[in-house]
Design brief:
elongated; 89 residues; mainly alpha; 2 strands
């Protein structure tokens, strides 16, 4: 995106979700969602992903022993439960 906002990758599996701990996930029921539900999900996920990535980067820049020019990159953890397996918050 040219406005500097982080983008979300979309394909047949749906957008990539950045979890609060920086791990990555997908929306488990993407294939069963209506187009309207997908539009809403895309918008909410993009906003939340941006907020989480900003927080992760800020925490990484201020952590002891970290180098401010290094960005905290989200890690892909297959052990992380899918969103539909987590307790509701």
């Amino acid at each position: 995106m040219s406005d500097g906002a982080a983008s979300i990758a979309l394909d047949g599996m749906g957008p990539v979700v950045v979890n609060a701990d920086g791990t990555l996930a997908r929306v488990a029921n993407w294939a069963r969602m209506t187009e309207r539900e997908r539009e809403v999900a895309r918008r909410r996920i993009a906003k939340r992903n941006n907020e989480r990535l900003e927080r992760i980067r800020a925490e990484g820049a201020t952590a002891p022993g970290s180098d401010a020019k290094d960005e905290a990159a989200p890690r892909d953890d297959p052990a992380e439960p899918r969103r539909d397996e987590r307790p509701a918050t």
